[in-house]
Amino acid sequence: MTLPTKMQAMVLTRHGDLDAYAWHEDWPVPVPAAGDVLVEVGATGLNNTDVNTRTGWYSKAVTQATTGGAYAEVGEEDPAWGGSPIHFPRIQGADVCGRVVAVGEGVDPARIGERVITDNWLRDADDLGNLDKTGYYGSERDGGYAQFATMPGRNALAVNSALSDAELATFSCSYSTAEGMLERAHVTAADTVLVPGASGGVGGALVQLAKRRGARVISMASEAKHAAVATLGPDRILPRAPANLRGALGDERVTVVADITGGPQFSAFIEVLERGGRYTCSGAIAGPVVDLDLRTLYLKDLTFTGSTVIGPQVMPNLIRYIEEGAIKPVLAATYPLRDLRAAQTAFIAKEHTGNIVVIP
């Protein structure tokens, strides 16, 4: 195909509110460098990293819950996920599904035409396991909020599936984040896993992937979303914020809490863990600053794990699960890329159950 030289793109110009985005009709189509592929974007999923990076929420100067709006103070030195600045202008959007339309030097031209989804973690080719040499697609380099995007060839993973581009664009962030959490917590069929925020993209993925491991799963979500959450197969569904979590659980023995919410319920999550239990966290949308009684941590022999950078084997495993039909997408809504601001507004307000995707 003859590739255009200009494209439509939604470009982030600074940290701030939704007006930090600028729509362009004539942004240059990127050229794949050595080792890169050029992907014609079919769909790109939204995730919390996009919102939090836009607003600068990752800065330690921000102590409140994710709001999606501008904050009064954002540290200049630590506004992105890695605790360092990013460069503007930046095209965000990590969760890409599309087709390879060109390749850079050193990439097999036979890859042209491949349908791919992204592995979002940008690793050092010579040191794949080094967390300090890891970046995030759409943060440390331009991503998929555009008609075309380049990425390292190793980050464009071939997928053979009857699912739509929009459905496939729900997997890269939500499901890899969830699988990374479950791996860090060593979840097995012997566990009972409590999943707060089960109606969101990561929460829904946690339910499915924990069930795939054979675990018993107790999800938490607002009652209006219980019917949708039930389709994911949890063993029980509790209200989003019961006044007495221990009482709501009854005789359940929770061995793992897989949490992306944090906030005022954090202490209750820790209190209900069994002795020797594990708490794993990959988000704090309800608030990043929490109360912890250290006596609970050490007297109950608990293990806490943070989970951000996933291992390089996670996405290939997820591709296999997708192709086998072992996991299903939870696509809540699609928006035109031009309407990214409206899509993020709906995402932040949790208007939908599952993932939101934008289409160029």
TrEMBL record:
What are the top taxonomic ranks of the organism? Bacteria, Pseudomonadati, Pseudomonadota, Alphaproteobacteria, Rhodobacterales
* PANTHER family named in the record: QUINONE OXIDOREDUCTASE
Q: Which residues cross the membrane?
A: none
Positions of the Enoyl reductase (ER) domain = 16-358
Keyword field contains Hydrolase: no
Keyword annotations of the record: NADP
Q: Which SUPFAM superfamilies match?
A: GroES-like, NAD(P)-binding Rossmann-fold domains
UniProt name for this protein: Alcohol dehydrogenase family protein
Q: Which terms does the record give in the GO molecular function aspect?
A: oxidoreductase activity
